[in-house]
Specification:
Number of domains: 2
Shape: flat
CATH superfamily of the largest domain: Nucleotidyltransferases  domain 2
Structural class: alpha+beta
Bound molecules: zinc ion
Oligomer: single chain
Number of helices: 5
Radius of gyration: 21 Å
Strand content: 15-25%
């Protein structure tokens, strides 16, 4: 079982956990118990097995070519990001994990727009909201440029007859959006935690 993945971001509990091969009573044979591993009998010798998340105990189906169902998330989302924004970002990650690249770009853009509103932006359009936050010093000019890339690709993804969104585009946009949220929420929260730890 050397090729088998042993750790994933669990699609159920969304934690970085390891998998144990499921075992249980085999209902259709004389064997009293068996590990849940199948050799499908093709020329490649494909093996499927059921992995049990060691944290939440829910099962995933794993192929030795690396496929896992349901698809695990690409990465966990930092707990310091406020809940509604985290939900948007997680939905973008779920879209990426099932190859829904346009959906990923739209949700990554939405996560960013939700954060702009959370940070006090009052205008209707994201472009104006970003300008508002840059003008009042909530985000830097660099961060605004960064955010505009997410906005462009998200806009293309949401409208017909626009540029398509490739896997690489979706990964880039998700990454940029998550980094944006890290600068806005996670970095200040870590600084605050460290300050209070040191009594500053
Ligand atoms: Zn789990």
């Amino acid at each position: 079982m050397t090729n088998f993945p042993i750790s994933i971001f669990c699609p159920f509990c969304q934690r970085h956990t390891s998998l144990t091969v499921a075992s249980g009573r085999c209902l259709r044979s004389d064997n009293d118990s068996a590990l849940a591993i199948w050799d499908v009998g093709d020329k490649r010798g494909t093996i499927w097995w059921i992995g049990i998340c060691n944290y939440c105990k829910k099962p995933v189906l794993v192929c030795d070519n690396g496929d896992i169902y349901p698809n695990p998330l690409p990465s966990p989302t930092d707990e310091r990001i406020p809940e509604p924004i985290k939900q948007d970002l997680n939905e973008a990650k779920i879209c990426l994990s099932v190859k829904a690249y346009r959906g990923c770009a739209v949700m990554a853009r939405r996560a960013m727009q939700t954060s702009c509103i959370d940070k006090g932006a009052t205008k209707d359009k994201l472009v104006d909201q970003l300008q508002e936050l840059a003008s009042n010093g909530t985000i830097t000019k660099d961060l605004k440029e960064w955010a505009n890339v997410v906005r462009w690709v998200g806009n293309d993804a949401a409208h017909p007859n626009k540029e398509n969104v490739s896997k690489e585009d979706a990964e880039d946009i998700l990454n940029l959006s998550e980094q944006f949220l890290h600068v806005i929420y996670v970095a200040p929260a870590i600084a605050k935690e460290q300050k209070s730890k040191r009594g500053k």
